[in-house]
Amino acid sequence: MARVPAIIPVSDLRQDAAAVLKRVRKSADPVFITQRGRASAVLLGIDAFQRAEYERQLLHALARGDKEIAAGTSHDLEDVLADADRLLASDPK
Questions:
Q1: How far apart are CA 57 and CA 88, in angstroms?
Q2: Per-residue model confidence as pLDDT tens digits over 25-71
Q3: Residue 2: what pLDDT?
Q4: How far are the Cα atoms of 11, 20, 44, 48, 91 from residue 27, in angstroms, in the given order?
């Protein structure tokens, strides 16, 4: 069953920012902030943000690789493996 996202109005954030930040830190799930009934911002704990950024960089590298393959360019295997090792070493697990 899908989780219901945490949605809070900006006025609640103003009234008790410490509690909202505590909630964000304890959960890997984002908290959506609304203003005038519309989504305005997303709060994400630092661990979840770092994981998402790592995954974004990895997907970007894979997409770049697909473009290079389609264009017929190639890279030395040692360079590719060194890049992969660098990415895996920076994994924020």
A1: 11
A2: 888 889 999 999 999 999 999 999 999 999 999 888 888 888 887 88
A3: 63
A4: 21, 11, 9, 9, 19
CA angle 14, 19, 23 (to 5 degrees): 120
Paired with 39 in beta bridges are 34
Is 1 within a domain?
Answer: no
Please give the residue range of the domain that contains residue 37: 6-44
The label of the residue with tokens 């493996």 reads: 81
DSSP secondary structure, 20-69, as one string: HHHHHHH-SS-EEEEETTEEEEEE--HHHHHHHHHHHHHHHHHHHHHHHH
